[in-house]
């Protein structure tokens, strides 16, 4: 169904560079192919993401001309989706934790300043339910996708729309852009995150080359325990954002 209203203009623009400078298949250099942009509706307003796309130019590589998108794009939204993961997490929390109806969820989103129609709320609720079933459905498909690169780089992030409610933890593969596991947890302790990482590791047939996350202590300790030999890098988005935050003496 086509959109009948003008989409709100972005309130800010975020640059997302691409740090995949070595092709995971042939280990040759990747080249900056192009720059593109997409707008994502989040709980903090519409954000325009400027994305740097890189690709391998080696004709003999099996990933020749395959586009590598920025690692941090997936923490904002699912591929080809208009609404952010934080909006999806809030919709799921309002539905399953507070048992609100679709019209009530729509009213709450509108109250928070999110421009959305009732039909889209139902679609987002379907996406939330699909995310939570990823760990137990179509595992063979995920194995085929991750096998193409011969390795995976995990990105882990937690989304908590409101303090005190469940956190939607999402673990995805940076190279393919696919979500490997998503689950709502009441806590974000090290033990719970270790279980998630071990579950993902057990479901893969390819090695884990690295993990990208923010600097949260429980995440770093969980990666150390579950994936002791795998390097854990702080994502550049969080690193630069925190570096720019004024610190009081």
The Cα radius of gyration reads: 19 Å
End-to-end Cα distance: 54 Å
CATH architecture of the domain at 140-243: 2-Layer Sandwich
Strand order of the largest sheet: 7-6-5-8-9
The ordered string of helix (H) and strand (E) elements is: EEEEHHHHEEEHEHEH
What general form does the structure show?
globular
Identify low-pLDDT runs: none
Mean pLDDT value:
84
Query: What percentage of the residues does DSSP assign to strands (E)?
Result: 25-35%
Helical content band = 25-40%
- Structural class comes to alpha/beta
Assign the CATH class of the domain at 140-243. Alpha Beta
Protein model, in words:
By secondary structure, the protein is α/β, with parallel strands linked by helices. The protein has a domain at about 140-245: Nucleotidyltransferase, domain 5 (2-Layer Sandwich). The chain is built from seven helices and nine strands; from the N terminus they run E-E-E-E-H-H-H-H-E-E-E-H-E-H-E-H. The protein has helices at about 85-95, 100-110, 120-130, 140-145, 190-200, 215-225, 235-245; strands spanning about 10-15, 30-40, 45-55, 65-70, 150-160, 165-175, 180-185, 210-215, 230-235. The strands form two sheets. The chain has a five-stranded mixed sheet. Strands 1, 2, 3 and 4 form a four-stranded mixed sheet that branches.
